[in-house]
Amino acid sequence: MTALRRLPVQLLLGGIALLWLVPTFGLLLTSLLPPSVIESGGWWTVLAKPRLMTLDNYRAMFADRQLVDALVTTCVVAVGNTALLVLISALAGYAFAWLPFRGRDGLFLVVVGLLVVPLQIALIPIFSLYNATGLFDTAAGLILFHVAFGLPFGIFLLRNALLEIPVEIIESARLDGASEARVFTQLILPLSRPAIAALAIFQFLFTWNDLIVALTLGRATQPLTVAIFAQLRQYGANIDIIAPAAFISLAIPLAVFLALQGAFTRGLLAGSTKG
Amino acid sequence: MVATQPKPTRTVSRPSPAPARPHHRPPGRWRQPLLAAAFLAPALSILAVWIVYPTVRTVLRSLFGRDPQDFVGLDNYHTLFTTDTLTMAIRNNALWVAVVPLTVTAIGTVLAVLTERIRWAAAFRTAVFMPMAVSMFAAGVIWHVMAEKDPQRGTLNAVVGVVHDAVNPTGVLATGRPSTPALTGDPGSGIALRDPVRPGQSAPLGLTGIPTREVPPGSVPAAIPAAGPDQITGTVFRDFSPGGGQPGVVEPGEAGIPGATVELRDTGGRVLATTHTSADGGFRFSGLDPGDYRVAIGRDTFAAPFEGVDWLGPKLITPTIMIAYTWMWAGFAMVLIAAGLAAIPRDVLDAARIDGASEWQVFRRVTVPLLAPVLTVVLVTMVVNVLKVFDIVMAVAGESTQDDANVIALAMWRTSFTGANNYGLGSAISVVLFLLVLPALALNIRRFRREGRR
């Protein structure tokens, strides 16, 4: 009876789930079709003729030096800035949570306030600064920019997470004569692993997907998004190159997300409902 | 709320509120601040160089013209609100703020409430939340492909096309006109013979205004089939031959129109029978009683094929991008709201139900007010996100429609970097963007303070 009454809801949600999956699924199938087929029909042609599917587009993509370089750049920037961000935020978060000093709460407020500075406001001065210092068009330049704009959220998230650590653990370690550096590396970091994971996933996804920063502060140092954008702009319709590149560019964050969904959701909740 | 759950454990784990600090302060008063400074130094210096300094610099730069020596006061801000492409960006962004956060929150709420009733909620949430992991840019590429105009290729138009064709089947001709005054009507209502026809007679139905390339494939020269005593025959043909020819008469070289719908009507106009013409345009109605009939070319002969909605054209580009954006963010709203829902005590809802409230009343009067804080968070976050929207617009809108799809962040980027290089105006645009998101900053800090006091 209840099962029957729930049938409309089940069907509705089934339809919605399908609707939400179709775009990504469509892109995947498009990337598996030979260019001649894509020219004349949509991805659904393959449903009737699965034998049309081929990995040729991917082979062509991995043979293309520019796209492979772009993939490497994306990885370097995304992994590099995430690691750096986690380290620096954890240090600052520890100070804000467990090292008392005058003006601490005010300073923390300022840092949290920076959370809503739109990164657009920094583009022009940083563009000039990078041109003057040689950081323009380097992976390091991109990494530092991403770290900076990840910091307000990172510090906020980790400070709150570190506060959850029971005070006795830290106090007793200090009583036992552990240095602050030891407390930090041997207690704090391991104990706040879930929050660190959430922050890392967030920042990784965000920077993996960045377009505007790389487009502005790089030229030859192109991540995948910029490379695809160039293709999109240059030829408009060479979907046999764009589709596999776009799919690769989303497959990795998607895999990260699916593997670590729990941590991601926790981070989201902590970020948006706390503070 | 899920996030506040760990709080009680913390209070419990601190049984004595005795001041612990003074006892355990390391020796030497100066060491503590120095230590804090060491831990904070990397973060604060990066924040200073990459966020604080550029912000100040940009605000100042916005008071100068294209030439950094040229102080112009607030002229850039005046330009911003009087230049067409820029006001378009502001108008579009206003539309974004008005439409998207509410839509996303509404969809998120409905999905969060509905998923509470199914067993595969986790799978469903993964499916809807997944686009969040996909980049704005990749989402843009996906929707660019989805929204292609050609119904053979664009998914959206393929779906619309199926519906369109079911309601309005494609005819063999796009259009056509009567070739003589003996015929009356237009493609919209069908083209009918003015005078009645009797069994045994034949009716030439000539059309003009049909370009050669639109003559349906398979057409052969027109011919009128001979009519038996109980038959009405005729032909639908393209009444035009090189050099003119005589209107209303089937002449050599004039093409038959195959596949046209021909209706046999009574004198009152009621359709008695329909048939389709053959390759030479000929048709035949048989077994007719004596009397007067009327013959007409049915209007479904003329329906134009579905050419596709121009999703990426100047008119629809902004709504198309909004659809793509909603697709991305609905999952975010759903996850947050679902967490809020899970934190609502069941007994409150049950009490309302026992008091006789309908499900809608429970939702409207109990659930929504209890969810208000979460809904506010989602709305505020979405407003900020939408004000900063950039990547997805870049990806979905081609160069030619970027003026129509323009938003503030895109206008800032195009003004500053795509060869225009007007840093003064670009700075002014980003300052305006900053001022627009500032109210959210105030909200965030207030929320933070409230939490801090607890």
From TrEMBL, chain A:
<dbReference type="GO" id="GO:0005886">
    <property type="term" value="C:plasma membrane"/>
</dbReference>
<feature type="transmembrane region" description="Helical">
    <location>
        <begin position="12"/>
        <end position="33"/>
    </location>
</feature>
<keyword id="KW-0813">Transport</keyword>
<keyword id="KW-1133">Transmembrane helix</keyword>
<comment type="similarity">
    <text>Belongs to the binding-protein-dependent transport system permease family.</text>
</comment>
<feature type="transmembrane region" description="Helical">
    <location>
        <begin position="242"/>
        <end position="264"/>
    </location>
</feature>
<dbReference type="Pfam" id="PF00528">
    <property type="entry name" value="BPD_transp_1"/>
</dbReference>
<dbReference type="InterPro" id="IPR035906">
    <property type="entry name" value="MetI-like_sf"/>
</dbReference>
<feature type="transmembrane region" description="Helical">
    <location>
        <begin position="106"/>
        <end position="127"/>
    </location>
</feature>
<keyword id="KW-1003">Cell membrane</keyword>
<feature type="transmembrane region" description="Helical">
    <location>
        <begin position="71"/>
        <end position="99"/>
    </location>
</feature>
<protein>
    <submittedName>
        <fullName>Sugar ABC transporter permease</fullName>
    </submittedName>
</protein>
<dbReference type="GO" id="GO:0055085">
    <property type="term" value="P:transmembrane transport"/>
</dbReference>
<keyword id="KW-0472">Membrane</keyword>
<keyword id="KW-0812">Transmembrane</keyword>
<feature type="transmembrane region" description="Helical">
    <location>
        <begin position="139"/>
        <end position="162"/>
    </location>
</feature>
<dbReference type="InterPro" id="IPR000515">
    <property type="entry name" value="MetI-like"/>
</dbReference>
<feature type="domain" description="ABC transmembrane type-1">
    <location>
        <begin position="71"/>
        <end position="260"/>
    </location>
</feature>
Automatic annotation (TrEMBL), chain B:
<feature type="transmembrane region" description="Helical">
    <location>
        <begin position="324"/>
        <end position="345"/>
    </location>
</feature>
<dbReference type="InterPro" id="IPR050809">
    <property type="entry name" value="UgpAE/MalFG_permease"/>
</dbReference>
<feature type="compositionally biased region" description="Polar residues">
    <location>
        <begin position="1"/>
        <end position="12"/>
    </location>
</feature>
<dbReference type="InterPro" id="IPR035906">
    <property type="entry name" value="MetI-like_sf"/>
</dbReference>
<dbReference type="Pfam" id="PF00528">
    <property type="entry name" value="BPD_transp_1"/>
</dbReference>
<feature type="transmembrane region" description="Helical">
    <location>
        <begin position="423"/>
        <end position="445"/>
    </location>
</feature>
<keyword id="KW-1003">Cell membrane</keyword>
<keyword id="KW-1133">Transmembrane helix</keyword>
<feature type="transmembrane region" description="Helical">
    <location>
        <begin position="94"/>
        <end position="114"/>
    </location>
</feature>
<keyword id="KW-0813">Transport</keyword>
<feature type="transmembrane region" description="Helical">
    <location>
        <begin position="126"/>
        <end position="146"/>
    </location>
</feature>
<dbReference type="GO" id="GO:0005576">
    <property type="term" value="C:extracellular region"/>
</dbReference>
<keyword id="KW-0964">Secreted</keyword>
<dbReference type="InterPro" id="IPR000515">
    <property type="entry name" value="MetI-like"/>
</dbReference>
<dbReference type="Pfam" id="PF17210">
    <property type="entry name" value="SdrD_B"/>
</dbReference>
<feature type="domain" description="ABC transmembrane type-1">
    <location>
        <begin position="90"/>
        <end position="444"/>
    </location>
</feature>
<dbReference type="GO" id="GO:0055085">
    <property type="term" value="P:transmembrane transport"/>
</dbReference>
<feature type="region of interest" description="Disordered">
    <location>
        <begin position="1"/>
        <end position="27"/>
    </location>
</feature>
<dbReference type="InterPro" id="IPR033764">
    <property type="entry name" value="Sdr_B"/>
</dbReference>
<dbReference type="GO" id="GO:0005886">
    <property type="term" value="C:plasma membrane"/>
</dbReference>
<feature type="transmembrane region" description="Helical">
    <location>
        <begin position="34"/>
        <end position="53"/>
    </location>
</feature>
<keyword id="KW-0732">Signal</keyword>
